[in-house]
Design a protein that fits this description.
This protein is of the alpha/beta class. The chain folds into two domains: about 325 residues, Metallo-dependent phosphatases (Purple Acid Phosphatase, chain A, domain 2, 4-Layer Sandwich), CATH 3.60.21.10; about 230 residues, 5'-Nucleotidase, C-terminal domain (5'-nucleotidase,  domain 2). The protein contains 15 helices and 40 strands. Strands 1, 10, 11, 13, 14, 15, 16, 17 and 18 form a nine-stranded mixed sheet that branches. The protein has a six-stranded mixed sheet with strand order 7-6-5-2-19-20. Strands 30-25-34-28-35 form a five-stranded mixed sheet. Helix 3 packs across helix 10. The longest helix is centred in the middle third of the chain and has 18 residues.
């Protein structure tokens, strides 16, 4: 699997130029400095543009990250550029290519064209690469002028990983020359191996079942890394499209980067998937992760945010040890493309790199025309500023569309007479996306860009049959969004920052309250931690307490129905309907069918009263105009929050 590549991404600089980096002053005649640059979770963000709000922004875009990359290359140091996956899906350009233009054999995907223009040395596959199906994926990556590797997605599984037939090569070894501290050139073989969460088999079952299988990440690494060493790899870099999770190894881990770091022979790890930054405050005090040294279990590592927000950089000082190289020192950092100022404004730190823009300009223009098409009208503002604290119109319209669609599909089936509910969650609700990361569609025309804004992912509709008891536990799982609140306390923090908004399911068709004085029954990952906890109170269907034995149909999506988020009653075994249509297509059809929609929140859920108690939460400043009209809850402004957010108070 040795490939000799000559690319401008790996520049052998002179000894004088190498002195630009701190390591270089230490470099001796047998030492050389290697700079490993990472992008991760680009999600088709090539331009600094928000297609949902239809405006330029300075916080995203490979065209901006590319300027950081070119700065490193301009220093003339030994460098290599790697992508860590999730590049094909994630914004309307990705949907336009998949659903409108298509990817026939021989077509060039704009993301691949941009990556070719920037001169990537290799990439791995992320879980979202599989969202549009295997033919789309393989036609897209066929245009790459660089190797794409993934060791744990296999077409045919053998007795051990090294006997598998993988979907793409499990690893590659690229041969380069390093210029040492004395200006002498030396050959080096760099091994690159990739990994993706095995949960793809659940998340994209429709596309993958019967076509590929997924192995455990660490299992695959332990098998292939020795083989790479035998093939002559001097150093090995793991492209781990897997987050930084528990340090305790378990089979089938989604976020396995820390156990991966314990595999002998891996010299550096590029991580991603979690849309966070490492080294960074998100991992302060994290077992197995050292922010100060930028390491996982002692191995240099980096995670470069998402959507091009950062460029990850690992600097290795390598020393020639006989005929091979070894790492003697290292640093790690994630360099941002923008900075948020104290007045909440954004200052761009770099300009666009023109070749990236040029590679996708036509598709960018076509995407703009695509997202601006109107499909109907709304009589109600569709915003998500308060989606985590009250019944919300942006979630309501998704829920109504799902229920409308599934009701039609069940006509004439054995499930037609069962009560029909609908589960939906807010996707754009601030958090890591920042204070502008909210849906905000005013009264008036609804365009495709607005529908894509309401529902970010190309999920497909599913329906499951569960009991009333499972409906309650589904909601108990969802209620992990909130911290436990002490009755009578003032200004306590309401939201659990570690709980993702896409796991905050609201179920329409029932009414209920959430008692915040109770502990959460489930932890962040869905494990039961308080068996007797009852946050969900006054749960009713059709005006009467819900019958724990009653069967219900719940409209949802393929991610949730197949186990995504670990919700009770949703593990793949309860599915009774699998739609060929995406949730977004269903929302578009629902709006077209109705012409004008009025998905006003109906306050089917509220917080249970806790007299004398107030709580605080942060949301986007744009929410101030809607605060007084949120149903079922008393909200007032409470000053500024951190990082550009606005703070609000709820009296329970």
């Amino acid at each position: 699997m040795a490939i000799r590549l000559t690319r401008r991404g790996f520049i052998a600089g002179s000894a004088g130029l190498i002195t630009l980096h701190p390591f270089a002053v230490q470099a001796q005649a047998n030492q050389a400095h290697l700079r490993i640059m990472e992008t991760t979770d680009l999600h088709v963000h090539l331009f600094p543009y928000d297609y949902y709000s239809d405006r330029p922004i300075d916080t995203v875009g490979l065209s901006r990250t590319a300027s950081l990359i070119e700065d490193i290359r301009a220093e003339g140091t030994n460098s290599i550029l790697l992508d860590n996956g999730d590049f094909l899906q994630g914004n309307p350009m990705g949907d336009y290519i998949a659903y409108e233009r298509g990817m026939a054999e021989g077509d060039m995907h704009p993301v691949i064209a941009a990556m070719n223009a920037l001169g990537f040395d290799a990439s791995t596959l992320g879980n979202h690469e599989f969202n549009y199906g295997l033919p789309f994926l393989m036609n897209s990556v066929a245009g790459a002028a660089f190797p794409i590797v993934s060791a744990n997605v296999v077409k045919t599984m053998g007795a051990s990983p090294t006997e598998d037939e993988t979907l793409v090569p499990p690893y590659t070894i690229i041969e380069r020359e390093l210029t040492d501290g004395a200006g002498e050139a030396h050959p080096i073989k760099i091994g690159l191996i990739g990994f993706v969460p095995p949960q793809i088999m659940n998340w994209d079952r429709k596309n993958l079942e019967g076509n590929v299988q997924a192995r455990d990440i660490v299992e695959a690494a332990r098998a292939y890394v020795p083989q790479m060493k035998e093939a002559g790899a001097d150093i090995i870099i793991a492209l781990s499209h897997s987050g930084i999770g528990s340090a305790n190894e378990e089979d089938g881990m989604e976020n396995a980067s820390i156990p991966l770091a314990t595999v002998p022979g891996i010299d550096a790890i590029l991580t991603g998937h979690s849309h966070l930054v490492f080294p960074g405050p998100s991992y302060d005090g994290w077992t197995g992760a050292d922010n100060a040294s930028g390491t996982l279990m002692g191995v240099p590592a980096v995670m470069a945010g998402f959507w091009g927000s950062h460029m990850g950089l690992i600097d290795l000082m390598l020393e020639k040890d006989g005929a091979s190289w070894r790492v003697v020192s290292h640093t790690s950092e994630a360099r941002p493309i923008s900075r948020r100022e104290e007045d909440r404004s954004i200052t761009p730190l770099v300009e666009d790199y023109a070749p990236v823009l040029a590679a996708a300009q036509q598709e960018h223009d076509e995407t703009l025309a695509y997202v601006r098409r109107a499909v109907g009208m709304t009589d109600t503002p569709l915003h998500s500023y308060f989606a985590l604290v009250a019944d919300d119109p942006s979630v309501q319209v998704v829920s109504e569309a799902q229920m409308w669609y599934v009701a039609q599909q069940l006509v004439g089936t054995e499930y037609a007479d069962l009560p029909l509910l609908s589960a939906a969650a807010p996707f754009k609700a601030g958090g890591r996306g920042g204070p502008e990361y909210y849906t905000d569609v005013p009264v008036g025309p609804v365009a495709i860009k607005n529908v894509a804004d309401l529902y970010l992912y190309p999920n497909t509709v599913r329906a499951v049959v569960i009991t009333g008891a499972q409906v309650k536990d589904w909601l108990e799982r969802s209620a992990g969004m909130f911290n436990q609140i002490t009755p009578g306390g003032a200004d306590q923090v309401l939201l659990n920052d570690n709980f993702p908004s896409y796991n905050f399911d609201i179920i329409d068709g029932v009414t209920y309250q959430i008692d915040l004085s109770e502990p959460s029954k489930f932890d962040r990952d869905g494990a039961v931690v308080a068996e007797g906890a009852n946050r969900i109170v006054n749960l009713q269907y059709d005006g009467a307490p819900i019958d724990p034995e009653q069967r219900f149909v719940v409209a949802t999506n393929n991610y949730r129905a197949t186990g995504g988020g670990s919700f009770p009653g949703a593990d793949g075994s309860t599915i009774i309907f699998e739609a060929p249509d995406t949730n977004r297509d269903v929302i578009v059809r629902y709006i077209v069918e109705n012409g004008t929609i009025n998905p006003a929140a109906d306050a089917n859920w509220t917080f249970a009263p806790l007299p004398g108690t107030t709580v605080l939460f942060d949301t986007g400043p744009g929410g101030a105009q809607y605060a007084a009209s949120v149903p079922g809850v008393s909200i007032e402004e409470a000053g500024e929050g951190p990082d550009g957010f606005a703070r609000f108070r709820i009296t329970l």
